[in-house]
Amino acid sequence: MRGHGLLLANYVPGNSFIHRSPLAVKFLLVFASGLASFLIVDWRVSLTILAALCGLFLLTGAGPKRLGRAVRPLLPVLLVIGLFQWWQLGAPTAGRIVLNILVCVVAASLLTATTPVQRLLDGVVAAATPFQRFGADPERFALTIGVMLRSIPYIAGTFADVRNSARARGLERNPRALVLPVFITSVAYARQTGEALAARGLGDAEGPDVEA
């Protein structure tokens, strides 16, 4: 099964100032972008922020094609959202909502394109460590994110391969020909991942000791 990206850009080695920026700064950029999506009420402001983030992304050396591949899977959903909001609330509001979603996606792609996955997971562990007093397990939380980052592209690749296979057989409009193989492959992948984690003692939370 070939790899596929989905929504977020893969890491691109480089030495740009964004690559060298502290991970906390990049996390704050993503957080600020998400917060801004709730606060911005003018589509022109959203467009300005999106243009600035795209400019930063290009400065990393990742290139416009990589950014396009990160955003392209989202375009059909954005089209539906935009048309519905246009019908309900008008063009300016629809444009603002769509642009704000893109702001969040590009900001997150900027993080993933300039940060190796292991460093990103180490940052998640460090950020979650203060919550240990409330019973949180930072290592398990980071593991969950790592599995998610690996699983989403795999499932997206499965869907793309199944869709191409169905199209070659003239079954691209048959829901069963699309959904059933993806479902079976995804369940099999989930079981294999669970078995691999369990074999390493990571599959289940530790329970109380039981005396024989």
Automatic annotation (TrEMBL):
GO-annotated cellular components: plasma membrane
Keyword NAD annotated: no
Regions crossing the membrane: 23-41, 47-63, 70-87, 93-113
Signal peptide residue numbers: none
Keywords: Membrane, Transmembrane, Transmembrane helix
Localization per record: Membrane
Record membrane topology: Multi-pass membrane protein
One Pfam family cited in the UniProt record for this chain: CbiQ
Name assigned to this protein: Cobalt transport protein
Species in which this protein is naturally found: Pseudarthrobacter chlorophenolicus (strain ATCC 700700 / DSM 12829 / CIP 107037 / JCM 12360 / KCTC 9906 / NCIMB 13794 / A6)
